[in-house]
Amino acid sequence: MDARRLLTIFTLDFFSICIYHTSNATGRDSSPSIDVTPNNKRLQGRFYGSVEPAFLDSEGIMYEIKERVRYSEVGGSQDITITALVNYLQDCSTFHSADIGLTLDRLNELHKAWLLSYWDIYVERMPRLYENITVGTSPHAFRGVLGRRNFWIKDSEGNYLLRADSIWFCFDTERQRPVKIDEEMVSSFGELEDVLKLTAGDRKVQEPEEMVEAPAIKIEPHHIDTNHHVNNARYLQIADDVLSAVTEGKESFTSGRIRAEYRKAAVLGDIMIPMYGKSANGGIVVSLRSETGDVFCNIEFL
């Protein structure tokens, strides 16, 4: 028999064995189903990328998932990129909401969405390729149209790599305006607790008086998320890319603090004008603006 034909048969047979190994004898997927009963401490669900099932405490306050940093999530230094870092946080809160019944489909039925207003992120160091990490979140305040959420990332020994607070607002997707948070949007979370107790500072990120304009960026489909505007993490990556480009790669965020104030959503086809300059706090502010000067997002790296 021709050697190439023999190799093809062997490869197909091996692939079939691998597929069969992931199923049980009845041919059904053997992955455990998600159990979202109120007092279940460990949610037996298989999530995208998680190396272990998620953990939800008995009061529904703290939620954690185990992850491992992938090659597709790191840059040339083997450190995780800002986009991947913030995506871990967003994914964790999305899983948390889904596992207590507030899936995207349910929110669509309610004509509601959570939109981000402010990030305050403290990074001790960036997670690295292959590293096992724990990503966690916990909502700690709801008032009027606003909600606040803690986030954290820990290494395998339980040390904090990242701590963050965030402010979100409840948005009515039908009437296209912020609305007061109703009971269903908060009751499933149980009692609230400020787990990290980070100091609440000024959430406004002021633009420096002197700023330099960087090359314009056109918003493409890969920038857009399910809310049909630029994803929150993309603004931070664009700002970091601007910082790296204007310093010829000498400056890029690896540790410290990131403050981001979101003012206006950029959508597909928009032209984004980055402006940058030194802040009064000794950091660098990147202001991402429209062609008419409206601010999409101000990001401060400290």
Description:
It is a single chain. Helices cover 21% and strands 31% of the residues. It is of the alpha+beta class. It folds into two domains: 35-203, Roll (Thiol Ester Dehydrase, Chain A), CATH 3.10.129.10; 205-302, Thiol Ester Dehydrase, Chain A, CATH 3.10.129.10. Helix 2 (82-99) packs antiparallel against helix 5 (232-246).
Percentage of residues assigned to helices: 10-25%
- State the distance separating the first and last CA atoms: 66 Å
Q: How would you describe the shape?
A: globular
- Whole-number total of structural domains: 2
- Secondary-structure element pattern, one letter each: HEEEHHEEEEEHEEHEEEE
Q: Name the CATH homologous superfamily of the largest domain.
A: Hotdog Thioesterase
Q: Quickly give the CATH architecture of the largest domain.
A: Roll
Largest sheet: 14 strands, antiparallel
Mean pLDDT equals 81
Brief sketch in words of this structure:
The chain is an alpha+beta fold.
Attribute tags:
Thiol Ester Dehydrase, Chain A; 302 residues; 5 helices; 2 domains; 14 strands; alpha+beta; globular; 14-stranded antiparallel β-sheet; disordered N terminus
List the topology elements.
Elements: H1 3-21, E1 42-43, E2 52-56, E3 63-68, H2 82-99, H3 104-110, E4 112-123, E5 132-143, E6 146-154, E7 160-172, E8 177-178, H4 183-187, E9 212-213, E10 217-218, H5 232-246, E11 256-262, E12 271-278, E13 284-289, E14 295-301
Antiparallel strand pairs: 1-2, 2-3, 3-5, 4-7, 4-11, 5-6, 6-7, 7-8, 9-12, 10-12, 11-14, 12-13, 13-14
Helix pairs in contact: 2-5
